């Protein structure tokens, strides 16, 4: 069913922290460590949203009423959640997406390129196309979403004509298998796939036929059960594992479960104990960490643990993109006085991958898109 993936990269001991100041010296360090120009580690294509995230809510407002909330953040969302999370772990990431020519589109483009170091050369900026917007309402350790978006002025399949060379790609199967994904796989690149919420409620089993061209499938529990018509996540996992070489079902605060048929592994991993501020994009951060672990050649259980770790650290902040951790935050978690030694003991495999110089003071989601940006006379 699967082509043999290329050997894992020797990542341990070679990473620099991409969250160091992205100045000229930092860029030279990064390029020297990886060799520039270099093949992408991951290529992604999908929709980038501007996420507006409200938190501190006790519930949703009743019709005709207004409530005030204690927190607000804004950040890149959609496929950008995964792209930023991967880049912050040191992977070379290329992204093909459409960007509007409005204020939100400009903010997203600058943030992803200048701040997060993502290669947007396969992306397109469109005139008079509004940036998609998602409002996330976080409460009761979960979130509800409201999204606005206009169709692209061309068929979505035309966004990627000639995908760049990359050792892996990540796709969403919501609208089918991209025409270029099969070519990626034939060249020996791994195909990771995710799905989103089916607003129609049909959860068409046709999606399962597309898994024949996927190496790793990463649905959450609700999606997995809906597509397999099962009533528990483990039953869904086993049905999906019959269709794809590696399948992982994300369980949120309960952790994750997975089966890797290529190695015969079946594993379960608990989530790390954290107090969640915002769970928006946590599944994408998990997927980004799982991709990193796969490229590094880790066993399934370690990939699940690392996915849980990065997702758990992300929910302490607004958004899945700017809430995702860099290596400095991962190291700080491991050195914290309040960390459970029994939990830390399970993550010793991560230590060789932490760069010698790493920071945990990184950009986070703010209530507005760029405080004072471009405003003459604005206070520092």
3D structure, described in words:
The protein has 380 residues and is α/β, with parallel strands linked by helices. The protein has a single domain, classed as UDP-N-acetylmuramoyl-L-alanine:D-glutamate ligase (3-Layer(aba) Sandwich), CATH 3.40.1190. The protein is built from eleven helices and 14 strands. It has helices spanning 24-34, 79-88, 103-115, 181-186, 206-209, 221-228, 233-241, 282-296, 300-314, 327-335, 341-344, and strands spanning 42-45, 48-55, 71-78, 93-96, 98-100, 124-126, 133-139, 142-148, 168-172, 190-194, 216-217, 246-250, 256-260, 265-269. Strands 4-1-9-10-11-12-13-14 form an eight-stranded mixed sheet, with helices on both faces. A four-stranded mixed sheet has the order 3-2-7-8. β9, α4 and β10 form a beta-alpha-beta unit. α2 (79-88) packs across α8, α6 (221-228) crosses α7 (233-241) and α8 packs antiparallel against α9. The longest helix is centred in the C-terminal third of the chain and has 15 residues, at 282-296. The protein is globular and about 50 Å long. The model is unreliable at 1-10, 21-36 and 373-380 (pLDDT under 50).
Helical stretch tally:
11
* Number of DSSP-assigned strands: 14
CATH topology, anyone?
UDP-N-acetylmuramoyl-L-alanine:D-glutamate ligase
Q: On the 0-100 scale, what is the average pLDDT?
A: 85
Structural class: alpha/beta
Fourth-level CATH superfamily: Ribokinase
Largest sheet: 8 strands, mixed
Question: How much helix, percentage-wise, in residues?
Answer: 25-40%
Shape: globular
Name given to the CATH architecture? 3-Layer(aba) Sandwich
CATH classification class: Alpha Beta
How many angstroms does the end-to-end distance come to?
57 Å
Low-confidence sequence ranges: 1-10, 21-36, 373-380
Overall number of structural domains: 1
Computed Rg: 20 Å
Q: Give me the strand/helix succession.
A: HEEEHEEHEEEEHEHEHHEEEHHHH
Spatial strand sequence of the major β-sheet: 4-1-9-10-11-12-13-14
Percentage beta strand: 15-25%
């Amino acid at each position: 069913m699967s082509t043999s993936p290329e050997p894992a990269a020797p990542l341990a001991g070679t990473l620099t922290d991409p969250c160091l100041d992205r100045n000229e010296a930092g860029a030279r360090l990064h390029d020297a460590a990886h060799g520039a120009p270099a093949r992408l580690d991951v290529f992604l294509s999908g929709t980038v949203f501007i996420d507006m995230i409200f938190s501190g809510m006790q519930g949703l407002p009743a019709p005709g009423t207004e409530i005030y909330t204690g927190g607000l953040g804004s950040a890149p969302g959609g496929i950008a959640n995964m792209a930023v999370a991967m880049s912050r772990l040191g992977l070379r990431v290329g992204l093909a997406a459409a960007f509007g020519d409005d204020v939100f589109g400009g903010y997203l483009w600058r943030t992803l390129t200048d701040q997060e170091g993502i290669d947007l050369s396969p992306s397109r900026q469109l005139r008079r196309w509004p940036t998609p917007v998602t409002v996330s309402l976080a409460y009761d350790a979960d979130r509800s979403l409201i999204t606005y978006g206009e169709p692209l002025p061309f068929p979505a399949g035309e966004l990627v004509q000639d995908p760049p060379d990359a050792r892996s790609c990540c796709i969403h199967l919501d609208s089918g298998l991209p025409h270029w994904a099969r070519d990626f796989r034939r060249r020996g690149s791994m195909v990771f796939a995710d799905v989103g919420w089916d607003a129609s409620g049909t959860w068409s089993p046709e999606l399962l036929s597309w898994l024949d061209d996927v190496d790793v499938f990463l649905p959450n529990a609700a999606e997995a059960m809906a597509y397999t018509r099962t009533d528990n996540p483990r039953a869904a996992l086993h049905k999906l594992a019959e269709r794809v070489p590696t399948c992982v079902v994300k369980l949120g605060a309960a952790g994750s479960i997975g089966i890797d048929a290529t190695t015969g592994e079946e594993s379960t991993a608990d989530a790390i104990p954290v107090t969640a501020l915002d769970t928006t994009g946590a599944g994408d951060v998990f997927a980004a960490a799982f991709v990193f672990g796969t490229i590094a050649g880790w066993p399934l259980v370690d990939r699940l643990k690392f996915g849980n770790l990065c997702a758990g650290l992300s929910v302490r902040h607004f958004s899945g993109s700017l809430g995702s951790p860099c290596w400095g935050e991962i190291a700080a978690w491991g050195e914290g006085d309040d960390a459970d030694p029994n939990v830390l003991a399970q993550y010793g495999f991560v230590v060789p991958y932490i760069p010698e110089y790493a920071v945990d003071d990184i950009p986070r989601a703010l209530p507005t898109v760029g405080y004072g940006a471009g405003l003459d006379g604005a206070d520092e």
